[in-house]
Amino acid sequence: MDKEPHISQRFDEELHEVHALVLAMGGVVEEQITNAIKALQEPDAELAREVIGRDHEVNGYEVRIEEECINILATRQPAASDLRLVMTLIKTIADLERMGDKASKIADMALAMGHGARNDNPAFLRDVGVMADYALNMLRRAMDALARADAEEAIAVAKGDEVLNQEYRSALRRLITYMMEDPRTITPAIDALFIAKAIERIGDHARNICEYVIYLAKGKSVRHLPLDEVEQSIQGK
Amino acid sequence: MDKEPHISQRFDEELHEVHALVLAMGGVVEEQITNAIKALQEPDAELAREVIGRDHEVNGYEVRIEEECINILATRQPAASDLRLVMTLIKTIADLERMGDKASKIADMALAMGHGARNDNPAFLRDVGVMADYALNMLRRAMDALARADAEEAIAVAKGDEVLNQEYRSALRRLITYMMEDPRTITPAIDALFIAKAIERIGDHARNICEYVIYLAKGKSVRHLPLDEVEQSIQGK
């Protein structure tokens, strides 16, 4: 009566701690993306440099969480839903780390564009603002779904990625039109295009996290399946 | 004498099987990239469609290998170097799957560009050819390093990624020059730019695999460390 529950309770605490660390990492990544977009829109070179300087914080979370997950695998030998949780966290941090990289790249471009005062195209800044708000909302909701292992919410967020992809394609078409109308805008428009692409990729990573959450909650991999099919199979359960 | 070694031998076989599956997946991805580039250069619409149609094969490998790895974690509770191998394989297949996606996207663009007979810019095709050969060589060498858990080779390949990044930046500058000289080339040049970017990303994924191989061989994570530092610490061992 005194050893078994103690071990199990320590294990629960370890799992809870590492889960909380992943949610904290998600919070930092969200802040990094928000600040990178703000640095671009203001423009604010100091904020851009702050984002670039904080990228190691995101990387540090990834390394620490991965070590703790491997430690749990080695010492606790989790099975069933505990094992799924550890796998979900390991996969989630890889996507969060890549989102952090995108924030850092956007901040890099905010610096490069700020110097030449090139980012004075209000239509482009509006496109980026709309896309970034959407992607940030996806990230927040994906992390909430992870916190609650909520498959229904995860699938709703994943489905929304198509809206972001459409926004991206529209922004791309508008950028190509600007370039054709005025070839002097080509260089800044190419920068803008990479920023739009980075935001679109942030949405893809949020969608990946949602797929892991569905796996966590439902116990089966839904990667590479059409979302409508996944939704039906979840509701059928 | 008859139970322990038997279990251990079955376990070795399981690990060996899943390792072999990952190497086979690497071979398919290499073929997909090779064919996508060929479909673009010829151009060959049928080959492009074949690449797109075979993407599910790459995805199938990812799902199957991940299931087998989770099964090994759940039933064999591997520790130390066995656990590192399983983690390395789980991470490697995520990068291979993304490289497969890039091949499929290049094939998509080969189809789109082929219709308009736009890919008749020999300088661009040469750039893509050079970059693709380099990226494919990185992938092949990364998979060889994985097969032999060879940290020295992995670090050599990872360091080479900077060469590919430079090739990419040069190609990007040339594309921007074409667009400025002749704005009618803007649309095909944007397609070309995304193809160059996809190849550059394939190199990043090969580099990621190399970092996992170093972790596998040396037992410590080298993600986010400067490669020169990693090299010194490996040689110091």
UniProtKB/TrEMBL annotation, chains A, B:
InterPro entries in the cross-refs: PhoU, PhoU-like_sf, PhoU_dom
One Pfam family recorded for the sequence: PhoU
GO biological process: intracellular phosphate ion homeostasis; negative regulation of phosphate metabolic process; phosphate ion transport
Keyword Transport: yes
Record's keyword terms, sorted: Cytoplasm, Phosphate transport, Transport
All copies of domain PhoU, residue ranges: 23-108, 131-213
Domain of life: Bacteria
One GO term describing the cellular component: cytoplasm
Intracellular or extracellular location(s): Cytoplasm
Coiled coil (UniProt feature): none
Subunit structure: Homodimer.
Family of the protein in this entry: Belongs to the PhoU family.
Record's function text: Plays a role in the regulation of phosphate uptake.
Protein name in the entry: Phosphate-specific transport system accessory protein PhoU
Gene: phoU
